[in-house]
Amino acid sequence: MEYIAFDAHKHYTLASVEKLHGGAVYEERIPHERGALRRFLGRCELGSPVAVEALGNWYWIVDEVEDAGFVPRLVHPRKAKLMVGMINKTDKLDARGLNRLQRAGTLPTVWIPPGELRDWRDLPRSRMVLVRQRTQLKNRIHATLAKYALTVPEVSDLFGRQGRKLLRERLCELPPQTAYATERLLEQVEALDRQVRLFEHQMGAVFEVTPEIELAMTLPGVGFILATVIVMEVGDVARFVSHEKLAAYAGTVPRVHASGGQGPLWPAAAGRQPLSQVGVCRSGQRHLSHAQAPPGSSCQPAL
């Protein structure tokens, strides 16, 4: 067996191969071309572990490693950087550091979702991107109206069918260029509405209501769409040894930074938890930590 580490970048990967008890065998810069990684691995001992950081383009790299008959080990990049503890940084040093952690048995690995699950996740994640863009445009329109003290008190939802109709009627009260810009923004909101509905239709066609989704829908404020997001991002719930671990993964519990028995509780670090990135923590955050699901559960698509 050998230890193999990939320091992946956008256009190439720096590979480092070491013997079981240390000592570099060879290092090579591999261009990101179809089959290049498999050709490189063809010179290595079959079944050896390959460390790959969970950054950027790791999806296809993991697939290439598995197809070549090797064992991918997806690495938590922030933890690995802290554990290696090097002052200097180069591609070779990074790859060697991963191999050093592999030999010591301390490589901080994370769960690798199956390829099919990675594909399914693109639906709710892409929908969330569009929803965030739509919210930004709506906020800009609200801010524009506030700058000119223009209100539409007749409706509670400015972007409902009646609200948009009234808004267009009131645009003439804005300065001409501001009115033009607001009209274009409103058109973008309507276009995003259509795209979001298409994603929701596709999700309804692909994902059936499994027991896991039904369980997630019992959380206050969680419907089918958000329940699907939760189940997709959690994946195989059996990988968590307790519900406390699941709650920590979801970012629904605070961080503690204490010394001498005293210290503040801080909110979970924004953007570091997968579920917080897709908006779950905004809906039913305090309820998610109490959710339980049967071991080995996962979301399955409709056949």
Query: What would CATH call the architecture of the largest domain?
Result: 2-Layer Sandwich
Helix percent band: 40-55%
Query: What is the N-to-C order of secondary-structure elements (H for helix, E for strand)?
Result: EEEHEHEHHHHHHHHEEHH
Structural class by SSE content: alpha/beta
CATH class of the largest domain: Alpha Beta
- The CATH topology of the largest domain is Nucleotidyltransferase, domain 5
Number of strands: 7
Whole-number tally of structural domains: 3
Q: What average pLDDT do the residues reach? A: 85
Q: How can the largest sheet be summarized?
A: 5 strands, mixed
Question: N-to-C terminal Cα separation, in Å?
Answer: 41 Å
Our count of helices gives: 12
How much of the residues is beta strand, in percent? 5-15%
Shape: elongated
Quaternary assembly = single chain
Query: What is the radius of gyration computed over CA atoms, rounded to a whole number of angstroms?
Result: 24 Å
